[in-house]
Amino acid sequence: MKKINIGIIGFGNVGSGVIKILRERKSFLSEKLGLEIVVKKVCDKDIALKRSICVDKQILTKDARDVIDDPQIDIVVELIGGIHPAKEFITESLKKGKNIVTANKALLAEYGSELFALAADRGKNIYFEASVGAGIPIIKSLREGLVANRFNSIFGIVNGTSNFILSEMSENNCSFTDALGDARLKGFAEKDPTLDIDGLDSAHKLILLTYLAFGKLVALKDVFVEGISRVSLADVNYAKELGFEIKLLAIAKKVDDELEVRVHPTFVPKGHLLASVTGVFNAIYVSSDLAGDLLFYGPGAGQLSAASAVVADIADLTQDVNAGLFRPTFNITGDKSIKRLRKIEDFESKYYIRFIALDKPGVLANVSGILAKFGISIASVTQKERSRQEVVPIVMVVHNAKEKNLRSALMAIDALNAIKEKPVAIRIEEV
Ligand code: HSE
Hints:
Layout: E1 3-9, H1 13-24, H2 26-33, E2 36-43, E3 60-61, H3 65-68, E4 75-78, H4 86-95, E5 99-102, H5 105-121, E6 126-127, H6 138-145, E7 151-157, H7 160-172, H8 176-186, H9 194-197, H10 200-214, E8 224-225, H11 233-241, E9 244-255, E10 258-269, E11 281-288, E12 292-299, H12 303-323, E13 340-341, E14 348-358, H13 363-373, E15 378-383, E16 391-402, H14 403-414, E17 419-428
Parallel strand pairs: 1-2, 1-4, 2-3, 4-5, 5-6, 8-10, 10-13, 10-17
Antiparallel strand pairs: 7-9, 7-11, 9-10, 11-12, 14-16, 14-17, 15-16
Helix pairs in contact: 1-12, 4-5, 5-10, 7-8, 13-14
């Protein structure tokens, strides 16, 4: 049986999972693929560390060049994460004629144009299934299964940590801080959990989904990103009273001839499938013109789930290597009807707004006067219980408003003497 050699750079949690699967399912995979996948080298800066899986010392190395420079290795699997030296390792590997498998969402979101162009130039591929939704085959589905479709929108819950925190707040009345602590203990938060809660991890994943669905590799600076750190337990509970759940959504949406690309906490109607996605689970809701509305759902993190996706990419590439094929997956035809990215100021949405205000005559009149001045129409308003400090939360829902008008109105409202905390505004999405 033909053998295809791979080299793995990064013998951490996911790397160990990949080796485990390739070892334990060796004959299972060989029978399916008609060839044998051989792990020829495994590189990590720490090869002395005890791991859940043992690897023959002969194939372990601390030097990535042992993988990159090995002419018998056809596929390099990069699993170290981060930008440097992952970028250099991938670049060098491509130049040496290797195909790449990576789970590195941050790297591809930032340097995708450069790396994909280099890969295409060398007639090689970079596969990245594990970078979004771990084992959920969303990348392959967008790239291959839905190849004939045009897309209207993608709404994704793509960060398990944020979803876990919001679910804990909603289901168990947990505070934000306690829920984050729990997510860290459970091990699915990033090393730096601000990447999760500030929305950057979701933005990286959204950039990749947008690229596959709309053919635009959007720069991170052009993605509107707002995390969940300002979402309070009170907001979660008011949302429920109003018939919504708060979710951190990653959204790419065509509006006329423009594309909106944004990540932010969002009110999702309780009846929508995305509202029932709880805990560390991920879900990507894709609206396509031929296949209709589709939901991809599953665990968005975890060793074997991510490793499953990495092995799928390896398996795909072995078939290409075996056939001497190059499938130009990066010539993703851009949606030509999209002329530009929509500017943040032009986003339009319904909003939930919460003010903490002095409970005295005229306050509501002042607030609604300012909203009216900026053309914002109120759909409902509720004044919540009076507290001992004589300040009360006022919860409003407003009809569709332009982002720039809403921001100006909130600034003016915030400047009122009667307003005691920075107002909170959360978009309400008609998914
Ligand atoms: N920190 C990520 C999450 C892990 O919480 O979803 C998977 O990318």
